[in-house]
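Human:
Care to share another protein and its fold?

Assistant:
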Amino acid sequence: MMLLLPVIGGVLAGWLAPTRAAIAMQVVFAVLGAGIVIASAPHHGTTQGAVAIWVIPLTIVLAPACLAIGVRLRRRRVAV
């Protein structure tokens, strides 16, 4: 559930915030979301290493993609 933070936050930050602020916010969202998922792994019956193997690459790919979608939406809104 916390991995939705970089997705939704990235799109909204890219769309509504200036580019530099959006990038900084997206880094915070990605680190926070991945950190909480990895830290809570033992409570869900798995190890932190097993979760980190798929969470970190997923977050690295997903966070910039969502930010790019948000920035593209902003440029579209400004152009119209």
